[in-house]
């Protein structure tokens, strides 16, 4: 029997602001410093490729140890699981992007904010897949200036969807000429609403296409209608090549008689936003 797995976040979790707090003290033997407090804040937990994530880190350093740097990292966690002939699991931890927010002096207090743009990536929520689990993690690491002390870390999962949350959208840029290599709507001119996947339910303006509707008995809306009413000024997404580029898809059994392009790069919907 196949082992079915997958992580799921409720609608409330990805539509509401995220706040993660962590604290530690430094010390040797009987000596102990004041606490180092780090708070990670995100406006929401759900985003789409093309959006900028405003990452805010509030630091209160009550210790005598300066903090050399505070680093924010967006990571892609892939878990592959099989059960035949025996159960086996493989994990990949891939860094998508990172920003360094700077440091802070001993007994200092500072609030640091940096934007992190999401590149073309596959959406989260692979609950219907029994062999692959995909998760995105935002991680913050505070590194002390002294090599004798350990880092302070905190992290939170975020969801990547295919349609922005209606409850959280940055200003939208005016339509621009599509960059080379991007397709408007879908491959070969196929409209985005005909590309498959779950449509957002009209009764839940925060839903994204790759997430199930809140009411499974509700009628399915007509293609295009929800996005037209919820996002009247949203330019159509362009389908951009994955940030990882093309990969060789030649199988071990292929030979000189196998024809076709052996280099393949998936494309994902990317939205164009204007950031003030």
From TrEMBL:
InterPro entries: Arrestin-like_C (IPR014752), Arrestin_C-like (IPR011022), Arrestin_domain-protein (IPR050357), Ig_E-set (IPR014756). Residues 32-165 form the Arrestin C-terminal-like domain. Residues 170-262 are annotated as: Disordered. It comes from Diploptera punctata (Pacific beetle cockroach). Gene3D superfamilies: 2.60.40.640. SMART domains: Arrestin_C (SM01017). Residues 213-224 have a biased composition (Pro residues). GO terms for cellular component: cytoplasm. GO terms for biological process: protein transport. Pfam families: Arrestin_C (PF02752). This is Arrestin C-terminal-like domain-containing protein.
């Amino acid at each position: 029997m196949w082992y079915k797995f997958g992580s799921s976040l409720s609608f409330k979790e990805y539509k509401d602001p995220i706040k993660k707090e962590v604290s530690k003290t430094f010390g040797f033997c009987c000596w102990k410093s004041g606490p180092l407090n780090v708070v990670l804040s995100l406006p929401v937990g759900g985003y789409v490729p093309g959006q900028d994530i405003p990452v805010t880190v509030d630091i209160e350093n009550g210790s005598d140890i300066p903090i050399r740097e505070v680093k924010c990292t967006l990571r892609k966690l892939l878990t592959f699981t099989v059960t035949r002939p025996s159960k086996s699991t493989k994990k990949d931890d891939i860094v998508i992007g990172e920003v360094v927010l700077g440091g802070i002096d001993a007994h200092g207090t500072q609030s640091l904010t940096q934007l992190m743009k999401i590149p073309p990536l596959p959406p989260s929520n692979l609950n219907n897949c029994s062999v692959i689990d995909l998760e995105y993690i935002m991680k913050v690491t505070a590194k002390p200036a002294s090599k004798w002390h350990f880092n302070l870390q905190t992290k939170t999962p975020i969801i990547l969807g295919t349609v922005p949350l209606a409850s959280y959208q940055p200003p939208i840029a005016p339509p621009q000429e599509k960059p080379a290599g991007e397709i408007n709507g879908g491959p070969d001119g196929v409209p985005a609403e005909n590309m498959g996947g779950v449509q957002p339910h009209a009764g839940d303006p925060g839903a994204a296409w790759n997430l199930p509707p809140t009411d499974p008995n509700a009628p399915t809306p007509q293609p295009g209608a929800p996005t037209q009413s919820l996002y009247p000024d949203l330019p159509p997404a362009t389908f951009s090549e994955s940030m990882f580029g093309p990969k060789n898809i030649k199988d071990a059994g292929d030979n000189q008689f196998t024809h076709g392009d052996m280099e393949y790069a998936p494309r994902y919907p990317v939205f164009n936003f204007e950031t003030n």
